[in-house]
């Protein structure tokens, strides 16, 4: 059984999509990051970095319990566990390259673009411009790569597509102010429409719908999400 530690944000959404695509049974464990539940000792024992997603596989290699954190690591682990969505062996290096481009580039810069456009106080014009433009640059790299391609790697659906879907799904927030955020990226737009139309995507979107996560952006939320902005009292 997979215990899946989840909050309805882009990186956990990738794992929800894999689990639904693979038909893997899982137990959903909501982690309300706006309440600071990611900082509790019990969760830090699973992910010392205090971030979602994370999983615990109670039937890991050799029947032992295994924890995995970071969305890219989880996708690789689940791909290897199930033997699915890893593409051809000959494309392995290409798959890893794009998976980590998404996990260390497009995702983080998109997240920072969202932060400075929606959450940061005014007066951060340089940072806002920096992260918005870098997010756009990463979109352009991916868009150029997708010319004439149906999938990010090779000729079949892989964990790279699953990873890319998680953040491109939030393009309207990353590229704030654009009526059609993917208009300037026609190859991403075509690719995303194809991925988004898969039946498992609808099921992935329903993961966690039965849990009421906090949505109020108050002082508790800001301290929970951005603890480095609040140094401990001396």
Automatic annotation (TrEMBL):
This is Glutathione S-transferase family protein. It holds the Pfam family GST_N_2. Residues 88-216 form the GST C-terminal domain. InterPro entries: Glutathione-S-Trfase_C-like, Glutathione-S-Trfase_C_sf, Glutathione_S-Trfase, Glutathione_S-Trfase_N, Thioredoxin-like_sf. Gene3D superfamilies: 1.20.1050.10, Glutaredoxin. It comes from the Bacteria. PANTHER family: DISULFIDE-BOND OXIDOREDUCTASE YFCG (PTHR44051:SF19), GLUTATHIONE S-TRANSFERASE-RELATED (PTHR44051). It comes from Plastoroseomonas hellenica.
